[in-house]
């Protein structure tokens, strides 16, 4: 094992480091343990999450700095990596010290983002939906920038019809914060004028887009009552306003395309609807033409004479059917009357007779109604036939057929009246017979009815001594008890 002195080891390490890092190196980190010597030299430590390195910047280089370093600054140091033999440690001999603006940007970005997120300004439930067809849009951007030109060109190319109000503001630098906040506050409150507010600018460096990470700008955007769209930078750019806005798109062109999507969709739907309506109309026209052709063919193939002849045969058949129906009805009525007469001869209570009489009258009425209805139906058919003939036949032929039809109608009416009169004549004797059998008429002549337990007494053998009987007279009842009875001589034989 070879033995070394401390100096030998230190010089070996120094040679190894300085040979490995022969050129200047750039190191990023955060300043800590910062101090300035009376001679003007700067001593500090640069660190990150896992390691640290001592740094020294001599007065000659430190005098060229345009700012005063302090603990916590994110910096980029350029210098020579050396070993300080007396201390036994390596260090960075700093020749140039730059403020790490990118590191600071992200630090501030994260601070604002975290703060607003904890307050709930990024919550999805706060996001407002964009209208399907916006009518007027407020665009907050630079009026001379490329962003507004891209936006308007995209609108024109997509045939979008909503109106645009441009709120001109600076979109870069600290001086842009107040105008942007003012425009957002005013336009965002005009719910009766604007459907959407778009905050927009083209791409740029992190420093160029820094204004859209300002807390005041983000809060003003979140406070808008009108739905908002953030269209800042390019695809790779992300800002605090993107998190706060109701909808985030990558570019101004994408914003114009998004707001016009409803109009394009409605246009497509309207075209589809128009095509469907044209197809439906064509189909209906085709169907109507087919029906018209069929009607024309039907009219041409059927002459008025044939039509009248056919209808005449139909009417003659109807007259025969009507006559047969009336005869059957009279026969049925007569049979029914005979049956009722037989039943009424057996039943003496007045209510039974009244019910049967009413039924017969109702039947007579319905028979008359049926005959009249049949007559009206046939009359209507004849009138319809006359109208049809008037439409299809020349005037002279129409008069000829009308005369024939009038004669036929007269014959039908005469036959119907004759049939009704015959039926009434047949019913008259039956009515007289019913009236003769009416118990009231019999009782008015001095006769009486004897009832026992509500039933007619037809024979002396139906009663016994001391039975209670009810004797019905024309004007009332007599209750009596049987004290004796005698069989007539005719029955004795």
UniProtKB/TrEMBL annotation:
Top-level taxonomy:
Bacteria, Pseudomonadati, Deferribacterota, Deferribacteres, Deferribacterales
Q: What is its EC number?
A: 3.1.11.6
Q: Where is the OB-fold nucleic acid binding domain?
A: 4-97
Is Cytoplasm included in the keywords of this UniProt record? yes
- Keyword Nucleotide-binding assigned: no
Q: What is this protein called?
A: Exodeoxyribonuclease 7 large subunit
Q: Which GO terms describe its biological process?
A: DNA catabolic process
Q: How does it assemble?
A: Heterooligomer composed of large and small subunits.
**Recorded name of the encoding gene:** xseA
Location (main, coarse): cytoplasm
Highest taxon above the source species = Bacteria
This chain's source organism reads Denitrovibrio acetiphilus (strain DSM 12809 / NBRC 114555 / N2460)
Q: Where is the Exonuclease VII large subunit C-terminal domain?
A: 121-394
Q: Which CDD domains match?
A: ExoVII_LU_OBF
**PANTHER family tied to this protein:** EXODEOXYRIBONUCLEASE 7 LARGE SUBUNIT (PTHR30008)
Q: Where in the cell is it found?
A: Cytoplasm
Q: What GO MF terms are annotated?
A: exodeoxyribonuclease VII activity; nucleic acid binding
What exactly does this protein do? Bidirectionally degrades single-stranded DNA into large acid-insoluble oligonucleotides, which are then degraded further into small acid-soluble oligonucleotides.
Q: Which reaction does it catalyse?
A: Exonucleolytic cleavage in either 5'- to 3'- or 3'- to 5'-direction to yield nucleoside 5'-phosphates
Q: Which family does it belong to?
A: Belongs to the XseA family.
Report the Pfam families cross-referenced here: Exonuc_VII_L, tRNA_anti_2
Question: What keywords are annotated for this sequence in UniProt?
Answer: Cytoplasm, Exonuclease, Hydrolase, Nuclease
Q: Name one GO cellular component term.
A: cytoplasm
Top enzyme class: hydrolase
């Amino acid at each position: 094992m070879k033995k070394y002195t401390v100096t030998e080891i230190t010089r070996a390490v120094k040679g190894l480091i300085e040979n490995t890092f022969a050129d200047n190196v750039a190191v990023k980190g955060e300043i800590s343990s910062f101090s300035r010597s009376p001679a003007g030299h700067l001593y500090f430590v640069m660190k990150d999450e896992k390691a640290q390195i001592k740094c020294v910047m001599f007065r000659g280089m430190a005098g060229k700095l345009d700012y005063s370093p302090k603990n916590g600054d994110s910096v980029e140091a350029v210098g020579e990596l050396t070993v300080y033999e007396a201390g036994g440690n390596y260090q960075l001999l700093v020749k140039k010290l730059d403020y790490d603006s990118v590191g600071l940007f992200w630090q501030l970005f994260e601070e604002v983002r975290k703060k607003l997120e904890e307050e709930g300004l990024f919550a999805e439930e706060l996001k407002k939906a964009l209208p399907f067809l916006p009518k007027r849009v407020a665009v907050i951007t630079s009026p001379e920038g490329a962003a507004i030109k891209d936006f308007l060109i995209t609108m024109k190319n997509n045939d979008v019809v909503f109106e645009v109000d441009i709120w001109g503001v600076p979109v870069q630098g600290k001086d842009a914060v107040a105008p942007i906040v003012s425009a957002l506050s005013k336009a965002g409150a005009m719910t009766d004028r604007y459907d959407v507010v778009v905050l927009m600018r083209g791409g740029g460096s992190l420093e160029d887009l820094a204004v859209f990470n300002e807390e005041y700008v983000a809060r003003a955007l979140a406070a808008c009552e009108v739905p908002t769209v953030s269209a800042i930078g390019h695809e790779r750019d992300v800002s605090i306003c993107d998190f706060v806005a109701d909808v985030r798109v990558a570019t101004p062109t994408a914003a114009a395309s998004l707001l016009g999507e409803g109009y394009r969709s409605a246009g497509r739907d309207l075209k589809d609807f128009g095509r469907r309506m044209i197809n439906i109309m064509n189909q209906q026209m085709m169907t109507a033409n087919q029906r018209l052709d069929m009607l024309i063919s039907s009219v041409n193939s059927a002459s008025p004479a044939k039509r009248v002849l056919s209808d005449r045969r139909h009417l003659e058949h109807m007259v025969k059917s009507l006559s047969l129906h009336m005869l059957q009805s009279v026969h049925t009525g007569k049979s029914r009357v005979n049956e009722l007469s037989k039943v009424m001869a057996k039943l003496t209570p007045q209510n039974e007779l009244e019910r049967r009489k009413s039924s017969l009258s109702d039947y007579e009425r319905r028979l008359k109604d049926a005959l009249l209805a049949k007559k009206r139906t046939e009359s209507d058919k004849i009138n319809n036939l006359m109208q049809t003939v008037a439409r299809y036949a020349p005037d002279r032929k129409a008069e000829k057929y009308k005369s024939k039809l009038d004669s036929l109608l007269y014959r039908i009416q005469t036959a119907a009246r004759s049939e009704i009169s015959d039926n009434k004549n047949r019913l008259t004797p039956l009515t007289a017979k019913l009236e003769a059998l009416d118990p009231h008429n019999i009782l008015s002549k001095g006769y009486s009815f004897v009832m026992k337990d509500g039933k007619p007494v037809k024979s002396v053998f139906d009663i016994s001594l001391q039975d209670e009987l009810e004797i019905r007279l024309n004007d009332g009842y007599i209750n009596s008890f049987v004290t004796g009875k005698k069989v007539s001589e005719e029955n004795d034989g």
